[in-house]
Design goal:
Blueprint lengths: L5 H14 L4 E7 L7 H12 L5 E7 L4 H6 L7 E5 L3 E7 L7 H13 L6 H7 L6 E7 L6 H14 L3 E7 L4 H6 L7 E4 L3 E4 L4 H13 L1
Parallel strand pairs: 1-2, 4-6, 5-6
Antiparallel strand pairs: 1-3, 3-4, 5-7, 7-8
Helix pairs in contact: 4-6, 5-8
């Protein structure tokens, strides 16, 4: 059974055709004995890729293809690395379904463009990021506010070579959710030091990222 409803495929196909610029690879990591949602995540990625000739999917085994996992800095599954002209550090962990399907689509489109619609003010703030920053955004598939925070995090990563951004389904990674005390979502963790809950506007989010880079 198709995970993307048939009545949405034409709209998605047109959306990708209009908005994508350069080819994008969805690099997925799974295992031979698959995790709970690995097969569904692979199916979803392949269904989306079938809607655009600029989109392709590569599937690797986390253990058997350990060299690839190291190359893409992937340590948990299911994992999706969204790769354009270069690796912008855009990652999704867990099946991007429900509200999170929009997070995947936004990531694909923005990586394809290699630039974002972040304001000039936000981009100027990012110029102050001097050290590597790792953003983790914990989401759930039923949270309507999560895609906004997830998309901003991915956009920040696209705009700065110093930033990587992981969007993580808290429901699929309960150990991580417990570690970071995820009670509400979206929960954002920056460099293991700065944490906040909620969809901040982009410039305030960027300011927190700059603070995290100096901690």
């Amino acid at each position: 059974m198709s995970l993307i409803p048939d009545d949405r495929k034409d709209a998605l196909r047109n959306d990708l055709q209009e908005r994508m610029v350069d080819p994008v690879r969805i690099v997925m990591f799974t295992q031979e004995i698959e995790c709970k949602f690995c097969s569904e995540t692979r199916q979803l990625a392949q269904e989306l890729a079938a809607l655009s000739d600029k989109l392709s999917v590569e599937v690797y085994d986390l253990v058997a293809n350990a060299d690839k996992a190291k190359e893409y800095r992937v340590e948990k599954i299911p994992a999706l690395a969204i790769i354009g002209k270069k690796d912008y550090g855009v990652r999704i962990y867990g099946i991007p379904y429900g509200y999170e399907l929009q997070t995947l689509i936004s990531a694909v489109v923005n990586v394809s463009k290699g630039t974002t619609d972040l304001s000039d003010k936000t981009k100027a703030i990012l110029a102050d990021v001097r050290l590597p920053v790792h953003i983790q955004v914990f989401v759930t598939l039923t949270c309507p506010h999560c895609p906004v925070a997830a998309s901003i995090a991915h956009k920040l990563a696209i705009e700065s070579d110093m930033i990587t951004a992981d969007v993580i389904d808290a429901g699929e990674f309960p150990t991580l959710a417990q570690k970071y005390q995820v009670i509400g979502v979206p929960k954002i963790v920056i460099n293991e030091k700065i944490e906040f809950v909620g969809a901040f506007n982009e410039d305030l989010f960027a300011e927190h990222v700059v603070l995290g880079s100096f901690k």
